[in-house]
């Protein structure tokens, strides 16, 4: 519901995404095509209790996909120095071609901009030690 309300209703302006079924089917197709975890594993970046410099993760992703994704982190807990990756976001054109997430949005949906749906804990990662967790729990 969250993903459809925040992103799908704007994406529905495109014929190829104008229903919940089309939207989620395309999301699953792109997820499988990106195969993020497999590529990171092949590059030696494994989820778990290992820490990486954020730059190493960014370089690995850029080398595989030839675009810059947006990586968002959970801040370190009090007394700790290590941030945790909360989300790796890939950006696409309207034709589903990967694009740099650093590029400005063209024809974005104004109604979809800043709807609060539980990602307020995420922020742009610092270029420091980073944990790539096997799963993420958000604490409120």
TrEMBL record:
Q: Which residues form a coiled coil?
A: none
InterPro entries this protein is in? Answer: RNase_T2-like, RNase_T2-like_sf
Gene3D superfamilies per the UniProt record, alphabetical: Ribonuclease T2-like
Q: Which Pfam families match?
A: Ribonuclease_T2 (PF00445)
Which family does the record claim for this protein?
Belongs to the RNase T2 family.
Instruction: Supply the name of the protein.
Output: Ribonuclease T2-like
Native species: Gekko japonicus (Schlegel's Japanese gecko)
């Amino acid at each position: 519901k969250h993903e459809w309300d925040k992103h799908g209703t704007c994406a529905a302006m495109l014929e190829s995404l104008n229903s919940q079924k089309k939207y989620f089917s395309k999301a699953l197709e792109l997820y499988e095509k990106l195969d993020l975890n497999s590529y990171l594993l092949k590059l030696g970046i494994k989820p778990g209790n290992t820490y990486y410099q954020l730059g190493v993760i960014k370089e690995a992703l850029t080398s595989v996909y030839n675009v810059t994704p947006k990586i968002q982190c959970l801040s370190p807990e009090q007394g700790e120095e290590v941030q945790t990756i909360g989300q790796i976001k890939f950006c696409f054109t309207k034709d589903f071609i990967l694009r740099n997430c650093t590029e400005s949005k063209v024809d974005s949906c104004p109604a979809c901009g800043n709807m609060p749906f539980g990602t307020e804990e995420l922020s742009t990662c610092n270029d420091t030690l980073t944990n790539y967790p096997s799963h993420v729990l958000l604490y409120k």
